Amino acid sequence: MAVTSPVGLHRVLEPAGALPQAAVRLDARPEIGPDEVRLAVRRLNLDAASFRQLATKHDGDGDAVRREVLAIVEARGKMQNPVTGSGGMLVGVVEEVGPESPLGLSVGDQVATLVSLSLTPLRITDGLAGWDGRSEQVPAQGSAILFGRSIAARLPDDLPPDLAMAVLDVCGAPALVHRVLTGYDRPSVAVIGGAGKSGSMALAAARRAGAGATVGIVPVQHEADLLRESGLADHVALADARDPVALAAAVEAALGRAADVTVVCVDVPGCEHGAILATADRGTVVFFSMATSFSAAALGAEGLAADVTMLVGNGYVPGHAELALDLLRTEPGVRALFERRLGE
Amino acid sequence: MAVTSPVGLHRVLEPAGALPQAAVRLDARPEIGPDEVRLAVRRLNLDAASFRQLATKHDGDGDAVRREVLAIVEARGKMQNPVTGSGGMLVGVVEEVGPESPLGLSVGDQVATLVSLSLTPLRITDGLAGWDGRSEQVPAQGSAILFGRSIAARLPDDLPPDLAMAVLDVCGAPALVHRVLTGYDRPSVAVIGGAGKSGSMALAAARRAGAGATVGIVPVQHEADLLRESGLADHVALADARDPVALAAAVEAALGRAADVTVVCVDVPGCEHGAILATADRGTVVFFSMATSFSAAALGAEGLAADVTMLVGNGYVPGHAELALDLLRTEPGVRALFERRLGE
User: Fold this and answer.
1) Do B305 and A150 touch (CB under 8 A)?
2) Which residues of chain A neighbour B9 with C-beta distances below 8 Å?
3) Which of A142, A255, B36, B107 could, after both became Cys, cross-link B32 (CB 3.0–4.6 A)?
4) Coil, strand or helix: which one is B248?
């Protein structure tokens, strides 16, 4: 493997010319090229939309879910759910560093990958024996490859690894919310799915970036109680995000008007129209859910004659890992919600 | 039909609570509510992605395409391609105006709908007898309904109706490009699919909005010749937009660097990664193609560690119809490309 590409083209087996994320199959061999890094895998964190699809398909049968994950990794050389297209991330220990790797990692570093599993060459060697198939957190043994242009964050010493990993998994959300809010003056912000991981981070980031008022929308009373207790949102409201009229009404009742910025953090399909309807003219909708339909969003805004900017949530914003870890350390409400989710 | 909703909720038959665009089936009855408008349909303009899907599925058999369009409209009460989710628009004559309609239309006005066919209640009464199934332009008789919050543009007197309709169909693209470019100082702009309808409009809008340099990317020599002749782009380059590395190389060769703003106007799947790779750090990708995959865009940017803003192309921007018609009137290159496409 003498000639390597910083974006991993040399690992694509099929189809030729595709980037690793779009590839059907990757070469996951553990031998590394000069600018690559090999990790010894410790744990996978499956993307929420992916895990939900698998759990639903197999009706909660953990053994069947585990078998399917193993089959996907075996067939594709990466953990990319063929239905949702999404992956997740992983934690591992640096095992070998190519002499030309620009990532600045050293053998023995414990890191989380901040590029998706959907493009990370992966081999599983333990049959996922330590996983019951009932949680997104997957203890695993095997190897994974980082390319020259991959991104990995060293796990901090002051936080439990599973907590840091859960935070880093959604670190794009607070960073992008922060950036979007700088374009507004004390905006009103609605976060759909505000009690979840990316949702609670988005609320914390919105407050820090100078939001005038925030509302977290949740689907059930239990989550409303949790979010209220966390203190992360000025308002908390119950609504089914798939019901556009109900969602818009809930946001308007809480904020007294439509939201300047609406952030979609729930991993269920059909939330596009409600988010658009809940957003003010010249407002922005940030779609972070992998269940978002491009055409539903585009045609929905047009059909509602809604003058809103709609962003595809990009998981990469420079400084995203640092901001997310800082929010976790300084916002007790964020930490409490994350610890509670990990304990479930 | 006493109680009507400005966004058409009262016309949704299934599923309850959905907005018309997301609905499986609409009530297309010609009787109007107090804030509705009924049009006598003259012509449909199918969305390019939708027509391409139908033509490919039926291997170019026009009769089969016509039968399927009729079946879709009959079953759904609207022309929404079940595979692509997209619709198109229509031209008609105002036949009846409800007393509470806010649209300012009068009986006899010839108008184009600027909301998608995918949410417009539609009945076809002539079996599409005047259409050979081989073009996106569909002569048709029947009725269509506009809601309180729909958008329709009166067709201008100085332009042939089919030309005006073709322009209005893509009028969101130049308006959004114009808005995005105001956030940059003399940006470099790449338009993927620059010789097409939305592509040529995007190029003209980019130049008017102060682009430093523009490149139109096209897939075949014939289109390159057409675009060069039109004079709309500073540079013209050939590349397959589905090949990320080739696309990025073509953009960089033409502009001397990555694009600050990349506009995707081709209706084929798989262009997300190339557009991202062709765009500079802190640049913007505007996705106008209905063939765009949300997850491919989101995960692609993350996987490439690309700090780019990605916009879902919203077909509605205030003033969009006026800007597009003005570009058609004042840019001979735009008009020549549109007239040529209509003549094909």
Assistant:
1) yes
2) 245
3) B36
4) helix
